[in-house]
Design goal:
Layout (H helix, E strand, L loop, with lengths): L7 E4 L5 H12 L3 E6 L3 H14 L3 E5 L5 H14 L5 E4 L14 H29 L2 E6 L3 H4 L5 H21 L4 E8 L5 H4 L17 H13 L7 E4 L7
Helix pairs in contact: 1-2, 1-8, 3-4, 4-6
Length: about 240
C-alpha cells in the first residue's frame, strides 16, 4: 500500500457529492487537495476549509475542464500552490436526461466534451510529470450506464463507456512506469439528484438502499494506495450489475 503523505491530488468536480467525499478521504490519508469546480465556488471553498481542518493543504481552482486553455491554467495554478499532481480523479461530469427522439448533435457534443474530453485533457496534462517521477494514479469516475446503457440516454452511456476505454489505454501504456489507471462505476449514489427524484427508489437495487458517497471514496482510496491494481473497473452498484 503506497503512502499518500505529501502527495497532491486533483479532483475535478470536487465541490460536492462523490468528488467532495473523495477529496476528504484523500486528505485524511495525507494528500494535499486541489478542488476543481466550474460554478459552485461556495461549495468548493467549503471543501477546502474541511480539508484544511483535517490538516492538509488545499486550494480551489475554477476551470471548465472541457476547455484546453482552462485545463492548462488550472494545472499551472495547482503546481504553483500545491506541487505537481500525483493523483488525478476525473470526476467532473453532467447527466441531463433527454428523450431519445429529442436527442440531437448539440446534446451529444456537450455530454462527450464535459464527461469524456475533459478526462482526456486533464489526464494528458498531468501524465508527463507523473512519468518523470515514475509514480502516479489516474481514477476515472464512470457509471453503470457504461455497462447497461442506463436510463439517461445514449449520449451519457457513450461518454461513460468512453472513460473505460480511456482508462484501459492509460493502464496499458503506463503500467511499467509506476502509474496506475482505474475506474469506478457507481449506480444510484445518494446525492441531491437522487434524493429529489421520486421516480428513483432504493428498492430498485438488490441491496435495498442507495449507495453513499463515502463508499465510493473508500473504493477510490483503495485503488490509489494499491500499486498492483491497474486497468480495472470497480462496480459499486448494490448488485445491480454483476461481473
Amino acid at each position: 500500500m503506497a503512502s499518500l503523505a505529501g502527495k497532491t491530488a486533483l479532483i475535478t468536480g470536487g465541490s460536492r457529492g462523490i468528488g467532495r467525499a473523495i477529496a476528504l478521504a484523500l486528505a485524511r490519508a495525507g494528500c494535499d487537495i486541489a478542488v476543481n469546480y466550474l460554478r459552485s465556488a461556495n461549495e468548493a471553498m467549503a471543501v477546502v476549509q474541511e480539508v484544511r481542518d483535517i490538516g492538509s493543504r488545499a486550494w480551489a481552482v475554477q476551470a471548465d475542464v472541457s476547455q484546453e486553455d482552462d485545463v492548462r491554467h488550472m494545472i499551472s495554478t495547482v503546481e504553483k500552490e500545491l506541487g505537481y499532481v500525483d493523483v488525478l480523479v476525473n470526476n467532473a461530469g453532467i447527466n441531463p436526461k433527454k428523450p431519445l427522439d429529442e436527442l440531437g448533435l448539440s446534446e451529444w457534443k456537450e455530454m462527450l466534451d464535459t464527461n469524456l474530453t475533459s478526462a482526456f485533457l486533464v489526464s494528458q496534462a498531468v501524465v508527463p510529470k507523473m512519468r518523470q517521477r515514475k509514480w502516479g494514479r489516474l481514477i476515472f469516475v464512470s457509471s453503470i450506464a457504461a455497462q447497461t446503457g442506463g436510463v439517461i440516454g445514449p449520449h451519457y452511456a457513450a461518454s461513460k463507456a468512453g472513460m473505460l476505454g480511456l482508462m484501459h489505454s492509460y493502464a496499458n501504456l503506463l503500467a511499467k512506469e509506476g502509474i496506475t489507471s482505474n475506474a469506478i462505476a457507481p449506480a444510484l449514489v445518494e446525492t441531491d439528484m437522487i434524493r429529489n427524484n421520486p421516480s428513483i427508489q432504493p428498492e430498485m437495487l438488490p441491496v435495498g438502499r442507495f449507495g453513499r458517497a463515502d463508499e465510493i471514496a473508500d473504493a477510490a482510496l483503495c485503488l490509489i494506495t494499491n500499486g498492483y491494481i491497474t486497468g480495472q473497473t470497480v462496480n459499486l452498484n448494490g448488485g445491480w450489475y454483476m461481473s
